[in-house]
Amino acid sequence: SSTFSPHHCYESSCRLVPHPKPNPCNRTRLHSPCRYEYPYADGSVTSGFFSKETTTLNTSSGKEAKLRSLAFGCGFRNSGPSVSGPSFNGANGVMGLGRGPISFSSQLGRRLGNKFSYCLMDYTLAPTPTSYLMIGGEQNEVVSKGSRMSFTPLQTNRFSPTFYYIGIKSAFVGGAKLPISPTVWSIDESGNGGTVIDSGTTLTFLPELAYRVVLAAFRRQVKIPSAAELTPGFDLCLNVSGVSRPSLPRLSFKLVGNSVFAPPPRNYFIDTADGVKCLAIQPVNSGEGISVIGNLMQQGFLLLFDKDKLRLGFSRRGCAVP
Protein backbone atom coordinates (compact mmCIF):
# COMPACT_ATOMS: atom_id res chain seq x y z
CA SER A 1 0.00 0.00 0.00
CA SER A 2 1.33 3.44 -0.92
CA THR A 3 -0.34 5.04 2.12
CA PHE A 4 0.98 2.60 4.73
CA SER A 5 3.85 3.54 7.03
CA PRO A 6 5.02 2.42 10.47
CA HIS A 7 5.38 4.76 13.39
CA HIS A 8 9.02 4.94 14.43
CA CYS A 9 10.38 3.96 17.80
CA TYR A 10 11.82 7.42 18.51
CA GLU A 11 8.56 9.28 17.75
CA SER A 12 6.33 10.53 20.57
CA SER A 13 3.44 8.48 19.14
CA CYS A 14 5.35 5.30 20.00
CA ARG A 15 4.90 6.08 23.68
CA LEU A 16 1.15 5.45 23.28
CA VAL A 17 1.62 1.66 23.10
CA PRO A 18 3.12 -0.92 25.49
CA HIS A 19 6.35 -2.48 24.25
CA PRO A 20 7.85 -5.97 24.40
CA LYS A 21 10.98 -6.43 26.48
CA PRO A 22 13.71 -5.97 25.47
CA ASN A 23 12.76 -3.18 23.07
CA PRO A 24 15.85 -1.90 21.21
CA CYS A 25 15.40 1.27 19.16
CA ASN A 26 17.57 1.85 16.09
CA ARG A 27 17.32 5.54 15.26
CA THR A 28 17.98 5.02 11.55
CA ARG A 29 14.73 5.53 9.72
CA LEU A 30 14.75 2.31 7.69
CA HIS A 31 15.14 0.00 10.68
CA SER A 32 13.19 1.64 13.48
CA PRO A 33 9.57 0.41 13.56
CA CYS A 34 7.66 1.01 16.77
CA ARG A 35 7.02 -2.41 18.31
CA TYR A 36 4.02 -3.06 20.55
CA GLU A 37 2.80 -5.92 22.71
CA TYR A 38 -0.72 -5.96 24.19
CA PRO A 39 -1.75 -8.57 26.77
CA TYR A 40 -5.41 -9.38 27.51
CA ALA A 41 -7.10 -10.45 30.73
CA ASP A 42 -7.52 -14.07 29.62
CA GLY A 43 -3.85 -14.49 28.65
CA SER A 44 -4.25 -13.65 24.95
CA VAL A 45 -1.59 -11.42 23.42
CA THR A 46 -1.05 -9.50 20.19
CA SER A 47 2.28 -8.02 19.10
CA GLY A 48 3.65 -6.34 15.99
CA PHE A 49 4.42 -2.89 14.53
CA PHE A 50 2.48 0.27 15.44
CA SER A 51 1.55 1.74 12.04
CA LYS A 52 -0.75 4.13 10.18
CA GLU A 53 -2.81 3.81 7.02
CA THR A 54 -5.56 5.50 5.01
CA THR A 55 -8.75 3.50 5.54
CA THR A 56 -12.11 3.63 3.76
CA LEU A 57 -15.25 2.63 5.69
CA ASN A 58 -18.95 2.40 4.82
CA THR A 59 -21.31 4.78 6.64
CA SER A 60 -24.99 4.27 7.53
CA SER A 61 -25.94 6.78 4.83
CA GLY A 62 -24.43 4.53 2.16
CA LYS A 63 -21.50 6.84 1.52
CA GLU A 64 -17.85 6.04 2.10
CA ALA A 65 -15.66 7.84 4.63
CA LYS A 66 -11.92 8.04 3.95
CA LEU A 67 -9.88 8.23 7.15
CA ARG A 68 -6.27 9.28 6.77
CA SER A 69 -3.47 8.30 9.17
CA LEU A 70 -5.60 5.80 11.08
CA ALA A 71 -3.27 4.30 13.68
CA PHE A 72 -3.28 0.52 14.06
CA GLY A 73 -1.06 -2.37 15.03
CA CYS A 74 0.25 -4.50 12.19
CA GLY A 75 0.23 -7.73 14.18
CA PHE A 76 2.50 -10.65 13.42
CA ARG A 77 1.82 -12.65 16.61
CA ASN A 78 -1.78 -12.98 17.79
CA SER A 79 -2.48 -15.85 20.16
CA GLY A 80 -4.23 -16.85 23.34
CA PRO A 81 -6.62 -19.26 25.04
CA SER A 82 -10.33 -19.73 24.39
CA VAL A 83 -12.99 -22.36 24.91
CA SER A 84 -12.21 -24.01 21.59
CA GLY A 85 -8.45 -23.47 21.56
CA PRO A 86 -6.17 -20.53 20.74
CA SER A 87 -8.58 -17.67 20.07
CA PHE A 88 -6.31 -15.38 18.06
CA ASN A 89 -4.33 -17.99 16.12
CA GLY A 90 -5.01 -17.47 12.41
CA ALA A 91 -7.10 -14.35 13.07
CA ASN A 92 -6.89 -11.50 10.60
CA GLY A 93 -6.59 -9.04 13.45
CA VAL A 94 -7.65 -7.88 16.89
CA MET A 95 -9.78 -4.73 17.07
CA GLY A 96 -9.25 -2.48 20.09
CA LEU A 97 -12.41 -0.77 21.37
CA GLY A 98 -11.09 0.54 24.70
CA ARG A 99 -11.10 4.04 26.17
CA GLY A 100 -7.49 4.83 25.27
CA PRO A 101 -6.66 7.49 22.66
CA ILE A 102 -5.58 5.10 19.88
CA SER A 103 -8.28 2.44 20.06
CA PHE A 104 -10.33 2.02 16.89
CA SER A 105 -13.45 3.34 18.61
CA SER A 106 -11.66 6.40 20.03
CA GLN A 107 -10.05 7.37 16.72
CA LEU A 108 -13.32 7.04 14.81
CA GLY A 109 -15.27 8.58 17.68
CA ARG A 110 -13.33 11.83 17.37
CA ARG A 111 -14.44 12.04 13.74
CA LEU A 112 -17.88 10.40 13.73
CA GLY A 113 -19.25 10.77 17.27
CA ASN A 114 -18.13 9.30 20.57
CA LYS A 115 -20.48 6.32 20.77
CA PHE A 116 -20.33 2.77 19.51
CA SER A 117 -22.58 -0.26 19.72
CA TYR A 118 -22.32 -3.91 18.90
CA CYS A 119 -24.29 -7.12 19.13
CA LEU A 120 -22.50 -10.46 19.37
CA MET A 121 -24.71 -13.23 18.02
CA ASP A 122 -24.70 -16.82 19.32
CA TYR A 123 -21.62 -18.45 17.76
CA THR A 124 -23.14 -21.96 18.14
CA LEU A 125 -26.00 -21.30 15.70
CA ALA A 126 -25.87 -22.69 12.19
CA PRO A 127 -25.58 -20.98 9.83
CA THR A 128 -23.53 -18.53 11.87
CA PRO A 129 -25.45 -15.23 12.14
CA THR A 130 -23.81 -11.90 11.44
CA SER A 131 -22.59 -9.79 14.35
CA TYR A 132 -22.12 -6.08 13.82
CA LEU A 133 -20.35 -3.00 15.13
CA MET A 134 -21.52 0.60 14.63
CA ILE A 135 -19.35 3.59 15.50
CA GLY A 136 -20.66 7.15 15.52
CA GLY A 137 -23.18 9.40 17.19
CA GLU A 138 -26.17 9.86 14.89
CA GLN A 139 -26.96 6.23 14.05
CA ASN A 140 -26.42 5.10 17.62
CA GLU A 141 -28.95 7.68 18.86
CA VAL A 142 -31.50 5.92 16.63
CA VAL A 143 -30.39 2.54 17.98
CA SER A 144 -30.75 3.54 21.64
CA LYS A 145 -34.22 5.05 21.18
CA GLY A 146 -35.61 2.02 19.36
CA SER A 147 -34.27 -0.74 21.60
CA ARG A 148 -35.81 -0.16 25.08
CA MET A 149 -32.39 0.12 26.61
CA SER A 150 -31.42 -0.11 30.24
CA PHE A 151 -28.46 2.02 31.32
CA THR A 152 -25.77 1.88 33.96
CA PRO A 153 -22.97 4.43 34.49
CA LEU A 154 -19.51 3.75 33.11
CA GLN A 155 -17.05 3.99 35.97
CA THR A 156 -13.37 4.94 35.76
CA ASN A 157 -10.32 3.42 37.37
CA ARG A 158 -7.29 5.69 37.21
CA PHE A 159 -4.99 2.67 37.43
CA SER A 160 -6.65 1.03 34.40
CA PRO A 161 -8.07 3.96 32.43
CA THR A 162 -8.70 2.14 29.14
CA PHE A 163 -11.20 -0.41 30.51
CA TYR A 164 -14.99 -0.04 30.63
CA TYR A 165 -15.93 -0.51 34.28
CA ILE A 166 -19.51 -0.96 35.45
CA GLY A 167 -20.78 -1.24 39.03
CA ILE A 168 -22.36 -4.45 40.33
CA LYS A 169 -24.49 -4.02 43.47
CA SER A 170 -25.59 -7.63 43.94
CA ALA A 171 -25.86 -11.00 42.19
CA PHE A 172 -28.74 -13.48 42.00
CA VAL A 173 -29.11 -17.13 40.99
CA GLY A 174 -32.62 -18.39 40.37
CA GLY A 175 -33.98 -15.11 41.74
CA ALA A 176 -32.28 -15.56 45.13
CA LYS A 177 -29.89 -12.82 46.21
CA LEU A 178 -26.45 -14.21 46.96
CA PRO A 179 -24.61 -13.42 50.23
CA ILE A 180 -21.70 -11.54 48.65
CA SER A 181 -20.29 -8.45 50.37
CA PRO A 182 -20.61 -5.24 48.29
CA THR A 183 -16.88 -4.64 48.83
CA VAL A 184 -16.16 -7.65 46.61
CA TRP A 185 -17.53 -5.70 43.63
CA SER A 186 -15.98 -2.29 44.39
CA ILE A 187 -12.76 -0.69 43.14
CA ASP A 188 -10.42 -0.07 46.07
CA GLU A 189 -7.98 2.83 46.51
CA SER A 190 -5.21 0.81 44.84
CA GLY A 191 -7.31 0.20 41.71
CA ASN A 192 -8.05 -3.45 42.50
CA GLY A 193 -11.50 -4.95 42.08
CA GLY A 194 -14.40 -3.60 40.06
CA THR A 195 -16.09 -5.12 37.02
CA VAL A 196 -14.95 -4.73 33.42
CA ILE A 197 -17.11 -5.50 30.40
CA ASP A 198 -14.76 -6.79 27.71
CA SER A 199 -15.49 -8.07 24.21
CA GLY A 200 -11.93 -9.44 23.90
CA THR A 201 -12.24 -11.93 26.78
CA THR A 202 -14.18 -15.13 26.11
CA LEU A 203 -15.27 -16.40 29.52
CA THR A 204 -16.57 -14.47 32.53
CA PHE A 205 -14.30 -14.15 35.56
CA LEU A 206 -15.32 -13.39 39.14
CA PRO A 207 -13.25 -12.81 42.29
CA GLU A 208 -12.66 -16.03 44.22
CA LEU A 209 -15.03 -15.01 47.05
CA ALA A 210 -17.91 -14.25 44.66
CA TYR A 211 -17.19 -17.21 42.41
CA ARG A 212 -17.43 -19.75 45.24
CA VAL A 213 -20.84 -18.37 46.28
CA VAL A 214 -22.14 -18.38 42.68
CA LEU A 215 -20.84 -21.91 42.08
CA ALA A 216 -22.42 -23.22 45.29
CA ALA A 217 -25.77 -21.63 44.35
CA PHE A 218 -25.78 -23.32 40.95
CA ARG A 219 -24.85 -26.66 42.50
CA ARG A 220 -27.80 -26.35 44.90
CA GLN A 221 -30.34 -25.29 42.30
CA VAL A 222 -29.41 -27.34 39.22
CA LYS A 223 -31.64 -30.42 38.96
CA ILE A 224 -29.67 -32.04 36.11
CA PRO A 225 -27.12 -34.77 36.95
CA SER A 226 -23.44 -33.90 36.82
CA ALA A 227 -21.33 -35.12 33.91
CA ALA A 228 -19.28 -38.26 34.53
CA GLU A 229 -16.11 -36.23 34.04
CA LEU A 230 -15.38 -32.53 34.39
CA THR A 231 -14.11 -30.77 31.29
CA PRO A 232 -10.62 -29.48 32.21
CA GLY A 233 -10.79 -25.87 33.39
CA PHE A 234 -14.43 -26.03 34.54
CA ASP A 235 -15.82 -26.72 38.03
CA LEU A 236 -19.44 -27.57 37.16
CA CYS A 237 -20.38 -29.75 34.18
CA LEU A 238 -23.80 -31.30 33.53
CA ASN A 239 -24.96 -34.38 31.66
CA VAL A 240 -27.60 -33.10 29.23
CA SER A 241 -27.68 -36.16 26.96
CA GLY A 242 -31.19 -36.60 25.63
CA VAL A 243 -32.35 -33.28 27.10
CA SER A 244 -33.24 -30.93 24.24
CA ARG A 245 -33.99 -27.86 26.38
CA PRO A 246 -32.47 -28.25 29.85
CA SER A 247 -33.99 -26.10 32.59
CA LEU A 248 -31.20 -24.10 34.23
CA PRO A 249 -31.22 -21.38 36.92
CA ARG A 250 -30.99 -17.77 35.79
CA LEU A 251 -27.98 -15.68 36.79
CA SER A 252 -28.53 -11.93 37.06
CA PHE A 253 -26.68 -8.87 38.28
CA LYS A 254 -28.24 -5.74 39.77
CA LEU A 255 -26.15 -2.80 38.58
CA VAL A 256 -25.55 0.75 39.76
CA GLY A 257 -28.57 2.77 38.63
CA ASN A 258 -30.82 -0.21 39.49
CA SER A 259 -30.79 -1.75 36.03
CA VAL A 260 -30.59 -5.56 35.89
CA PHE A 261 -28.35 -7.54 33.53
CA ALA A 262 -29.93 -10.99 33.17
CA PRO A 263 -28.40 -13.07 30.38
CA PRO A 264 -30.03 -16.37 29.37
CA PRO A 265 -28.44 -19.62 30.64
CA ARG A 266 -27.01 -20.44 27.21
CA ASN A 267 -24.63 -17.49 27.71
CA TYR A 268 -22.95 -19.15 30.70
CA PHE A 269 -23.70 -22.87 30.33
CA ILE A 270 -21.81 -23.83 27.19
CA ASP A 271 -21.33 -27.08 25.26
CA THR A 272 -17.86 -28.52 25.92
CA ALA A 273 -18.54 -32.04 24.59
CA ASP A 274 -21.45 -34.07 23.21
CA GLY A 275 -24.14 -34.07 25.88
CA VAL A 276 -22.09 -31.96 28.29
CA LYS A 277 -22.65 -28.36 29.35
CA CYS A 278 -20.29 -26.54 31.71
CA LEU A 279 -20.56 -23.32 33.69
CA ALA A 280 -18.46 -20.83 31.70
CA ILE A 281 -17.47 -18.72 34.69
CA GLN A 282 -14.05 -18.97 36.30
CA PRO A 283 -12.39 -17.56 39.43
CA VAL A 284 -9.77 -14.82 39.29
CA ASN A 285 -6.67 -16.33 40.83
CA SER A 286 -4.67 -13.11 41.10
CA GLY A 287 -4.91 -10.83 44.11
CA GLU A 288 -6.53 -8.05 42.08
CA GLY A 289 -10.07 -9.41 42.46
CA ILE A 290 -11.30 -7.91 39.19
CA SER A 291 -14.48 -9.24 37.56
CA VAL A 292 -14.69 -9.53 33.76
CA ILE A 293 -17.95 -9.91 31.84
CA GLY A 294 -16.69 -11.74 28.75
CA ASN A 295 -18.09 -12.01 25.25
CA LEU A 296 -20.03 -15.25 25.78
CA MET A 297 -22.03 -13.57 28.55
CA GLN A 298 -22.75 -10.64 26.20
CA GLN A 299 -24.21 -12.72 23.35
CA GLY A 300 -27.61 -11.59 22.10
CA PHE A 301 -27.43 -8.20 23.82
CA LEU A 302 -27.25 -4.91 21.98
CA LEU A 303 -24.57 -2.99 23.91
CA LEU A 304 -24.18 0.78 23.52
CA PHE A 305 -21.03 2.42 24.87
CA ASP A 306 -21.78 6.13 25.23
CA LYS A 307 -18.47 7.80 26.04
CA ASP A 308 -19.98 11.30 26.06
CA LYS A 309 -22.63 10.54 28.68
CA LEU A 310 -20.39 7.96 30.41
CA ARG A 311 -22.96 5.19 30.39
CA LEU A 312 -23.47 1.67 29.07
CA GLY A 313 -26.79 0.77 27.49
CA PHE A 314 -27.94 -2.81 27.01
CA SER A 315 -31.02 -4.47 25.57
CA ARG A 316 -32.18 -7.91 24.43
CA ARG A 317 -33.93 -6.11 21.55
CA GLY A 318 -32.27 -4.57 18.54
CA CYS A 319 -29.79 -7.25 17.50
CA ALA A 320 -31.11 -7.42 13.94
CA VAL A 321 -28.41 -6.28 11.54
CA PRO A 322 -29.09 -2.57 10.82
Strand content: 25-35%
CATH superfamily of the largest domain: Acid Proteases
Average pLDDT across residues? 88
Helix fraction, binned, reads 10-25%
Radius of gyration: 21 Å
Class computed from helices, strands and strand pairing: mainly beta
List the secondary-structure elements in sequence, H or E. Answer: EEEEHEEHEEEEEEHEEEEEEEHEE
For the record, the CATH architecture of the largest domain stands as Beta Barrel
Name the shape in a single word: globular
The biggest beta sheet is recorded as: 5 strands, antiparallel
Helices, by number, come to: 4
Descriptive labels:
21 strands; Cathepsin D, subunit A, domain 1; mainly beta; 322 residues; 5-stranded antiparallel β-sheet; single chain
How do you describe this structure in short?
This protein has 322 residues and is mainly beta. Helices cover 11% and strands 32% of the residues.
Task: Record the SSE blueprint.
Blueprint: E1 5-6, E2 34-39, E3 45-58, E4 64-79, H1 104-112, E5 115-119, E6 132-135, H2 137-145, E7 150-153, E8 165-166, E9 168-173, E10 176-177, E11 195-197, E12 204-207, H3 208-221, E13 237-239, E14 251-255, E15 260-261, E16 269-273, E17 276-279, E18 281-284, E19 291-293, H4 295-298, E20 302-306, E21 311-315
Parallel strand pairs: 11-19, 12-18
Antiparallel strand pairs: 1-3, 2-3, 3-4, 5-6, 5-20, 7-21, 8-11, 9-10, 9-14, 13-17, 14-15, 16-17, 20-21
